[in-house]
Amino acid sequence: MEFDAVVLAGGGSTRFGGVDKAMLVLDGMTLLDRVLTATAGAANTTVVGPVRTTYREVGWTVEDPPAGGPVAGLAAGLQRGTAPIVVVVSCDLPWLTAADVTTLVDGLAEADGHGLRDSSGREQQLATAYRRTALADAIQRVGDPRDKSVRRTLAGLNLTWTEPTRSGDDVDTWADLDD
């Protein structure tokens, strides 16, 4: 099934001391390129954040307002592409694979979204395939997306989840990069 990808890569990486988390290298590849490899099957890929050098060509946009948070980033990313399914991922999912993305898209069934749980069982709204219309409606309901909570914004959606998996583990601190 055709899908678009929205990759959120605009955060300040404050827990990394301001280092650009998207450009951290793990096993010879940046975190951003690892996610772009996993989403290479997308009809359209849009990275929300500052333009960086990546291994493949993608579209770029920034949230409005700038530094407005992940919901503002989702709103900006949804303006690109037309596929009925949108895979939303953050740039800090280094263990995400193309097979995981396929699992997300194939797992939608009758739900509004199907997402990964991290290895501790936490639901990852920023590692989820969504029906474009459901995601757009949820964002529209919050009005101004600046600094809105992703969990609260998406709380009304019918979401299903995978079993816990390392693929859903994001990298928020240096310790998270340890194998």
TrEMBL record:
Residues 5-154 form the MobA-like NTP transferase domain. The keyword Nucleotidyltransferase applies. Gene3D superfamilies: Spore Coat Polysaccharide Biosynthesis Protein SpsA, Chain A (3.90.550.10). PANTHER family: MOLYBDENUM COFACTOR GUANYLYLTRANSFERASE. Pfam families: NTP_transf_3 (PF12804). This is Molybdenum cofactor guanylyltransferase. Keywords: Nucleotidyltransferase, Transferase. GO terms for molecular function: nucleotidyltransferase activity.
